[in-house]
Write a structure and sequence with these properties.
Oligomer: single chain
Number of helices: 10
CATH superfamily: von Willebrand factor, type A domain
Strand content: 15-25%
CATH class: Alpha Beta
Radius of gyration: 22 Å
Structural class: alpha/beta
Helix content: 40-55%
Largest sheet: 6 strands, mixed
CATH architecture: 3-Layer(aba) Sandwich
Number of domains: 1
Distance between the termini: 47 Å
CATH topology: Rossmann fold
Number of strands: 6
Shape: globular
């Protein structure tokens, strides 16, 4: 026989309430942690890709508003990249460090200029910049890589990067930090080996490979990645549906995002 005293009905009710309250606090705390997000946007700003950054520029107000209203604690970084110096190159990379200051990010995107390039680009340098960002320990972390060309070392020699950066080592460095790569392939009709390496980026980091059919879907894609990382993708889809903004190409993007794992919203 147990020596434990029997609990009265009232004591059992109180114990049940305490247990449920503790579970609610743990769930609420987990939800808050989920919605701490560090997001880095990597843009190829060479000739064929610069219009994509311009499209984001035109929709910056909505982008920042949508993400900021859903996520209480988000830090943004932006890394623009071209290729290594030649006659048309104005920079290799330009970086806006992780910050909560949406105005600072907006000003960076508004003022970053196009640069030259062609064929493989200095994407390995941009990945190196992403590794060097001051990622917060307790945050969900993601890189959204927007481009249409591979890094050096895929279709040419690794020595084409004068800085000696290797996209494989940089990707593994991001993976060790728990940073997912969402690789977004633009101009999908001219992919060569680019799709192969973009898929590799996503697989190595447990991110997602996405194909962008319509440039006007880019802003909602960027918002969708943030919502997915916060467990709010389904809610965002409903919002698009209610606003009659869920086009067939956008629906395919949302499905691609959902395929990479369970969305708890």
């Amino acid at each position: 026989m147990s020596n434990m005293p029997e609990l009265s009905k009232k004591q059992m009710e109180v114990l049940g309430k305490v247990t449920r309250r503790s579970a609610d606090i743990r769930a609420s705390s987990a939800a808050r942690r989920t919605r701490i997000l560090d997001i880095a946007l990597l843009f190829d700003t060479t000739g064929s890709m610069y219009p994509y950054l311009e499209n984001v520029r035109q929709n910056l107000s909505r982008l920042v508003s949508e993400i900021g209203s859903a996520l209480p604690d988000v830090c943004y970084a932006v890394i623009a990249h071209g290729d290594h110096p030649d006659a048309d190159t104005t920079y290799v990379t330009k970086t806006c460090q992780l910050t909560r200051d949406a105005e600072r990010v907006t000003n960076f995107i508004i003022n970053v200029e196009p640069t030259g390039g062609g064929g493989p680009e200095a994407l390995e340098d941009a990945l190196h910049e992403a590794n060097a960002l001051k990622w917060r320990e307790r945050s969900n972390k993601a890189v959204v890589l927007v481009g249409d060309a591979p890094p050096h070392g895929v279709v040419d020699s690794f020595s084409e990067c004068p800085c000696g950066f290797d996209y494989r080592k940089e990707t593994k460095g991001l993976c060790r930090k728990g940073i997912k790569i969402y690789s977004v392939l633009c101009n999908p009709n001219n992919v060569d080996r680019t799709e192969e390496v973009f898929r590799w980026f996503a697989k190595q980091t447990k991110g997602r490979f996405l194909t962008l059919e319509n440039i006007d879907d880019l802003t909602d894609l960027l918002i969708g990645v943030c919502m997915k990382e916060a467990g709010l993708l389904t809610s965002f889809e409903h919002k698009l549906l209610q606003a009659n903004k869920m086009t067939p190409s956008k629906r395919r993007l949302m499905l691609q995002l959902k395929e990479s794992g369970h969305d708890s919203s």
